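Input/output pair, single chain:
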Amino acid sequence: MKDRLPADLPLRACRLAVPCGTLLLGAAGDELLYCDWENGWHRAVVQSRIDRFAGRPFAEVKLESNPLLRETARQIGEYFAGKRRAFDLPIRFVGTDFQRAVWEGIKAIPFGSLVTYDDLARAIGRPAAFRAVGQATGENPFSIIVPCHRVVGSARTMTGYGGGYAAKKMLLELEGFTVTGEDGGAAILPRG
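Output:
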């Protein structure tokens, strides 16, 4: 990560309650930097990377919205209401070239579709890197917007998710899947 934000660029952050948890949204100027689960598995790793990029900790930013954060909240609300399948937001990926390639690959997964970590590794031209793809997927700073919940185990089974298994299950069911259990290894089946 070579670039940094200008020191005078205003940072904004807010919390957003959704049906399966609480998201933290952060923006710098007119770009969204993260939309991550407040109590997510990789929260500290994501926040540390964003804070280094910003040159100051987001924890010190007064929680207040701005037009971009309000638009983000509106689009996420539409997603949960079944009225949106893709997001149209100015996001900035902060990470290594490999992480950004993985996140771009995830961003391309259509609503109601699933891919495995192996599929994703092949899609980004790194077929042997499926474990590293799994790590980068877990550190995705844009939960829901960059839909890492659509990445599943090789047998179309539940795998870890930053927002927890219950959140992943809810998101997959919202997109038309039936999940046969509550945790890792649960089968994911098309509804119908």
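The two ends are 45 Å apart (CA to CA). The chain has six helices and seven strands.
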